Amino acid sequence: MASTSDIKNGLCIKYNNDIYKIIEFLHVKPGKGPAFVRTKLRSLTNGKVLDNTFSAGHKIEEVRVENHKFQFLYPEGNDFHFMNTETFEQITLNKNILDSPDLLKEGENVMVSINTETDLPLSVDMPASVILEVTYAEPGIKGNTATNATKSATVETGATVNVPLFINEGDKIKIDTASGSYMERVKE
Questions:
Q1: Fold of 129-185
Q2: Superfamily for 65-125?
């Protein structure tokens, strides 16, 4: 059993007969009254996000997980196929368990959290950013590039991302996987 002082991002806990992963937390010490921890939990079974507040010192049941490096092989409908880079064992995961499946390119390495008690995959941690090629983008309008204007562009995985007007087809761009937003143009 862990307590609220052990809470950190990525911690998996049992709560309300489900397994949740902590995606955000904030320790709050108000001027009046007891301290508490405000958390944002994501269910690892259905992907729903839940806001919850734990009082300070509250006991939480931690789930032991192991992280393994997997390589994304290919999508097949709503199923995504991955291969363990050490044992070459293949697993199939549902699209719902992934944070941003539309940004996942074949051959990309991810970290998969596996429950040590049941040997079932719990979550997939994407890299912080991915570099993808723009396959379709409207041409930028001349004279409109001085402002922070954006346009939508389609990348090689089929995802649509808002990009600055100077991005063209064939450019490689870096995308933040947490928010799905454009970060910078990559020159090779």
A1: OB fold (Dihydrolipoamide Acetyltransferase, E2P) (2.40.50)
A2: Nucleic acid-binding proteins (2.40.50.140)
Kind and range of the H or E element at 174? strand 172-176
Q: What is the pLDDT of residues 90-141, one digit of tens each?
A: 999 888 778 788 888 889 999 988 888 888 888 788 888 999 999 998 887 6
* Cβ atoms of residues 22 and 2 within 8 Å: no
Burial of 96-124, coded b for 16+ CB within 10 Å and e otherwise, reads ebbbbbebbeeebebebbbbeeeeebbbb
Amino acid found at 78: N
65, 145, 177 from 85: Cα distances, Å: 18, 44, 22
Q: Which CATH number fits domain 11-55: 3.20.20.20, 2.30.30.30, 3.30.420.10, 3.30.470.20?
A: 2.30.30.30
